[in-house]
Amino acid sequence: MLSLGQSAFYSKTVNEDDVISFANISGDYNSIHVDEEEAKKSGFKKRVVHGMLIGSYVSTVLGTIMPGTGTIYLEQLLRFVGPVYVNDSVNINITVSEVLNEKKGIYKLSTQVFNGNGELVVDGYAIVKKQ
Questions:
Q1: Domain limits of the chain?
Q2: Phi, psi torsion values for 24, nearest 5 degrees
Q3: CB atoms within 10 A of CB 128
Q4: Which fold has domain 7-129?
Q5: Residue 91's pLDDT is what?
Q6: Which of 7, 33, 73, 93 is 20 to 30 A from 60, comparing alpha carbons?
Q7: Among 70, 57, 62, which residue's Cα sits nearest to residue 108?
Q8: Sheet holding 89-101: strands in order across?
Q9: How many whole angstroms separate alpha carbon 124 and alpha carbon 39?
């Protein structure tokens, strides 16, 4: 059982291998992610990590830390509010924001990701079922 306000955290430095592996798995070879010269021409001026790779770290917390093994994803909203660059660190913060159905183990969790400078880069929520 989870309680309102309960939190979990995960930190990761996103390196070159992570970005290339994600491109290979997903098939997303957008030049803003994989080509430094092309990315320099963008508004970001350097390579940006795939948003969904960052989103997958939210899944890491949900499936391994809180609620943990056996968690079922029911819904996810991710708002990408800032870039994450290759070799940036990210800190994923998950907090129980609502107990939707305690009997069935369904919870709404605030999902926030901050870069190494403490700036919010992803904001959203997940609805999960704890087995």
A1: 7-129
A2: -65, -40
A3: 25
A4: Thiol Ester Dehydrase; Chain A (3.10.129)
A5: 98
A6: 33
A7: 62
A8: 7-13, 89-101, 106-115, 120-129, 72-80
A9: 26
pLDDT of residue 131: 84
CA–CA distance, 19 with 50 (Å, rounded to integer): 7
**Whole-number Å distance between alpha carbons of 30 and 119:** 25
pLDDT at 130 over 90: yes
Structure-token match 């989870």, residue found:
2
In whole angstroms, give the CA distance from residue 127 to residue 3. 14
Strand pairing class (7-13; 72-80): unpaired
Q: Tell me: the pLDDT tens digits for 79-90?
A: 999 999 999 999
Contact in structure between 86 and 100 (CB atoms under 8 Å): no
Mean pLDDT, the chain, integer: 97
- Among all chains, which residue has been given the structure tokens 């994803």? 73
Ramachandran region, residue 105 (left: φ > 0; alpha: ψ -120 to 50; beta: rest): left
